[in-house]
Structure formats: C-alpha cells, structure tokens
Amino acid sequence: MPSCSQCQKSFEITSREAALFKKFGFESNGLCFECDQKARICFRNGRKLYNRKCDATGEQIISCYSPDKPYKVFRNDIWWGDTWDARDYARDFDFFRPFFDQFLELQLSVPRMALSNANNENSEFCNMTVYNKNCYLVFGGDYNEDVQYGDLCFHNRDSFDLDQSNENEQCYFLSDSTKCYGCQFVFDSKNCDHCYYLSDCSSCSECILCAGLSQKSYCILNKQYSKEEYMEKKNALITGSHKQRSENWKNFLGLLGNRIVKFAHQVGCENCTGDYIYNSKNCQNCFEVSNGEDLYDVILSPDAKDLFQCSFIGHHSELCYQVQSSVKATNCQFLYLGSESSDIAYSEAIFSCHDCFGCVCLKHKNHCIFNKQYSKEDYGKLKTQIVEHMKKTGEWGKFFPHNISCFGYNESTVNDYFPMTKDEALSQGFKWCNYPEIKPKSDRTISSDNLPDSILEITDDILNSAIECEKSKRLFKITPQELKFYRKNNLPIPRLHSDERHNQRADLRNPRKLFPRACAKCAKPLQSTYPPDRPETIYCEQCYQQAIY
Description:
Structural class: alpha/beta
Strand content: 25-35%
Radius of gyration: 24 Å
C-alpha cells in the first residue's frame, strides 16, 4: 500500500478508485482520504466573519476575509453588478513559470465578493447561503426564515442553534434532525414533536431523555408513562432553569453511551459505505450525502452523481473531480466555489460560465484562460499547451497548494471536520489566522456566572450587555429576536458563545472515518464510523430494526 505524502500513513487505492482515476484522466495525488479532504476544505470559510473596508467604496462591511488579508474585496451588490469586469484583470500565461505562482498573482488582483450569499433578505450576517429571510449567523444553510445560529441547515422556521437539520419549526439545539416541531436538544431524529434530549428517534411525541424509539409518546428514559404521570415529571425536568438544563444535558450524555445504535446513519441506500447517507446508490466512503449516485470519497453532497474526491458539492452536479463548494457543476475539475458552470478547471469563484481554465471570479463568461478572452479554437489550443506545461512542472493533477487558500486553517471549515492545533497545521504547510473576529459593542460586560438561572428573571437590559462565554471567555450578545424566542420557549440564556454551542453538537458526531466492526447480535461484518473503543452497542440494520420497532 502507498504512504500518504502528507501524513505518511499507509492507505489503500481500491480497484474502484483506480478505475475512477482512469475515468477522469488523472493519477492519484498520493494523499490519504483525510489529507485529500483537508487540502480542499481549507479553501472554504463558512463561519468566520470580520469587519473590513469595501475596496470599491471605502465603507465598512461584513466579510469572510479579515482586514489583514491582501485581497481586494467588494460589497456583494457591487461585485454582482455590471460596473466592473473580471476580464480587465486578465493576463497572458508565462510558460517559463509554474502555473500555481501565476494563479496566485491573478487571485491577488481580482476583486472578490465580501460574502458568498445570494437572494437573502435581512440576513446580512450569514455566509455561503441563498434565499434566507430574517436570519442571523446562518452558514451554508438555505431557504430558512427567522433562524439564528445554523450550519448547513435548510427550510427551517423560527428555530435556533441547528446543524445539518432541515424542515424544522420552533426548535432549539438540533443536529441531523428533520421535520421536528417544538423540540429541544434533539439529535439524529425525525418527525418528532415536543420532545427533549432525544437521540435516534422517529415519529415520537412528548418524550424526554430517550434514544432509539419509534412512534412513542409519554416516555422518559425510554420508560412508558401515562399522560398524567409524564406531564408531572416533565414539569420537574423542563423548567427553564439553567441549572436543571445542565443536569438534563449531563444525563443525556450518559444515556448516549448505553444505547443500541445502527452501524451507520443510512436510509434508503444501496451499496453505500460511510455515514449520514440517504436515498443514495453506489456511494462509497461518503459522508453527509443525500440523493446521490456513483460517488466516491465525498463529503457533503445533495442531489449529485458521478463525483470523485469532492467536498461540499451538489444540487445536480455531475462528472466532477476535486471540486469544492460548488452547485450545478458539470464536468469540472479542481474548482473551488462555483455555480451553474461546466467544463471548468483549475479556477476559483466561477458563476454561470463554461469552458474556462485558470480563472478567478468570473460570471457569465466562456473560453477564458487567466481571465483573458479567447476564441473557441484558440482556447482549446492554449489549454492543451498549459496542461502539458503543468505535467512537466508536476502541477497537473494536484489541487491548489495550501498557500493559495484565502484562509487560515483555524478559520476554514476544515477545522470543524479535521481539527488541528496551530503547530500541527503550520507543520503541514497550512496558514493560520490570528486576526480577531467581530466583537460585540457594549458598555457593559456580564460574566455568564452572574446570569439569572431562569429566563423569567431576565430583563431587557441584557440586550445592551456583552456576555462572557463560560468556556472560551469570548464575548457575545443576545439579539432581540433571540430573547423573544427564549422567553416564548421558556429557555434560559445560554452561557456559551454560539461557536461553542456548535462545537458541543459537533462533538456528538462520529469522525468521518470507517472502522471494521461486527454486529453485536448476529456478528455480521460492518464498516462503521463508531470506533471500536466506543461504548455503544453496534447493530446491523436488520438487527437494529428488530430492536427498536
């Protein structure tokens, strides 16, 4: 087996991978799955926001690029407007220099949009989103309304603190849950209402501290109660007290280690390996995939087919290799951030384009190389020559090097998926960002220890105060909509910054790595993201279905 050129660990190239390399016309880049994903995802900053100046107007704007970054950044409406043309920054290709060095120079010259958003309403503090309304700090989530603190969440209403959860309403603190109503602290569940501290439950109503239940009501710790008994106990457990909530959370974490779990979160799948895969076919070593077909080594992809070694790509993308953060991409390779484009290679931020190579921040263009316009015939000839040049320099078939990423490892999405310390990241050639994020403006700071225990004791002056996170000591503020939501749902004021709350939920997810396991009941061999040292009891799908239904 070959050794990874980055981490030196041995990894296998399967027969299907070898066939895919041949299909897409490339050789292995010599990286294991984890290092290959790191190399791409370090180009995506979904959650970190900064104050900086717009290079077109000089005004202060919100951006995913910190002010110390050397890039030109335009306010979004100006970037999308017709007052400038990215082709004005075009340059000829120099065959006496490496491709990546020239690409970096182009990247530094072309203006980029402050935030990757489109068609949002009253949702300025969001990034990587479309069609959100009245949203705040939603990242990579679309079609939400009145949602705050969300990550990769879609079609939710009047909900707070959601990760990878869709079509929920009046919910708080959810992860990987769908079509829930009035729920709090619910994970890996669907079609539940008025439930609290749940994991792996389906179609349940009025349940507390439960796991692995289906079509149940009035249960606590998986024990059935009458409606009257349940309501009496619920009044003692769901009180709106921060102290009681902390006790419930502690009990919930203890419950997770003692449960029976299915080897993977897969529903409606055929010939798939990985985790969080839904209604998909022939998806191998994939994670967070829905309605996919013929995917391999992919992280997060809705509605796509024929993808190989891609990340955050979907919505009818097809025939892509080494593509990241793109939608409706067809026959693209080595592309970061694109939409509705085809036949694109070695480019960044490409929208509604086709047949472009080595380009940055183009929209509605075709047959461009290094942002320079060519005829169809000249484009084909020059592209062939550059490919041959890149083969000689050893650049062809490799994703962009780390120094071309606009972001430090710690501010990019990769740190959520494969966390590393500063020393570890720097030793592997990644950048690190030391610039402070946006800080709340306030004349008053409150220690989280001094917050009242119950929301009933909170007065409106909390809106004018900055709260010190009890873990990271970072300051954060409560928005008026947020305070209204807590009062309506009898929730205490959080003591943790929204990033720390996001980390709490992320910590409950398994690593994106497969381990050989066996069903604890029938001994069937399995590939699971539950490591062998985890305390949960692992069942195959058949045994799991028999156990919970």
